[in-house]
Specification:
The protein has 268 residues and is α+β, with helices and mostly antiparallel strands. The chain contains seven helices and eight strands, in the order E-E-E-H-E-E-E-H-E-E-H-H-H-H-H. The longest helix is centred in the C-terminal third of the chain and has 30 residues.
Length: 268
């Protein structure tokens, strides 16, 4: 049964993130809320909503997620001032574990090391600059944007989760007609390839090839339905929705055909 909180009971902790995330308590437990009114704009919510579903479709573990209504009486403060505006918000369920932080040794304790390669494939597909950007000289790598879950696992074991997709599809505020441009669809840069990840790509090449084969099966009608599900309040107009669907679908084909040739020189 999908996780579906319906009521925000209280705000617990306001965080200094790009989407001004707030940890809240709901009628279905604790979660991390990204709401309207954040300084990054409503497209951050749309990108996270779509990106999380695309990651799950590709077979990557993700946080459980939902859309929940923020009500005027909730009075949820942002860390840097102001508060969440009423309307639909994106929420992910709190899960035990920690952000990675860059410890290379802990990656050997993953129960799903094969998903490292799939995560790099995913980040490249959706052009996610907010883990390891193609050029770390121009944008700082974010090793805190990799989550290691301990849910249901023995001590000393971890499960890699795909988290936080607010900067997919060319960054927040860009979910518009520009996304259809061919230079974005045929972007040949590799995203998400932390140096610590490189040894695992070759080790799990069959799993990477399976993820690439999965990418080639994406269904356009499913993509259209996903994009159509973005709440109107998140301010993605029809031109932006059409372009987003085009980029997701067309880039899946392009990345599936080119990814192996692009990544092999970087991991040799």
């Amino acid at each position: 049964m999908p996780w579906q909180p319906t009521i925000i009971r209280r705000a617990d902790l306001s965080l200094a993130t790009a989407a001004e995330t707030v940890q809240v308590t709901t009628d279905a437990g604790k979660g991390y809320l990204k709401a309207l009114g954040n300084r990054g704009g409503p497209h951050r919510l749309a990108a996270d909503w779509a990106g999380t579903q695309l990651a799950a479709w590709l077979g990557l573990p993700t946080f459980e997620f939902a859309i929940i209504q923020v009500l005027p009486e909730n009075e949820i403060p942002f860390q840097k001032g102001g508060q969440a505006q009423p309307g639909p918000a994106f929420i992910t369920r709190l899960e035990p574990g920690m952000t990675w932080g860059g410890n290379a040794e802990i990656l050997s304790s993953l129960v799903n090391p094969q998903d490292i390669a799939a995560l790099v494939l995913f980040d490249t597909w959706v052009r996610n600059v907010d883990r390891y950007p193609p050029n770390p000289a121009t944008r700082k790598a974010n090793r805190g944007n990799v989550f290691l879950s301990t849910k249901g696992l023995p001590d000393g074991q971890w499960r890699l989760l795909a988290m936080d997709h607010t900067h997919c599809f060319d960054g927040p505020g860009y979910l518009n007609a520009r996304l259809s441009h061919i230079d974005l669809v045929k972007d040949d840069q590799i995203y998400g390839l932390f140096p610590e990840f490189k040894p695992f790509i070759g080790l799990h090449r069959p799993d990477l090839l399976a993820a690439i084969a999965k990418l080639q099966t994406i269904d356009r009608q499913w993509v259209d339905a996903l994009v159509a599900g973005i709440p109107a309040e998140w301010a993605v107009d029809q031109a932006g929705r059409d372009a987003l669907a085009n980029q997701v679908y067309n880039r899946a084909d392009y990345v599936a055909r080119t990814f192996v040739a692009l990544i092999e020189p970087q991991i040799e």
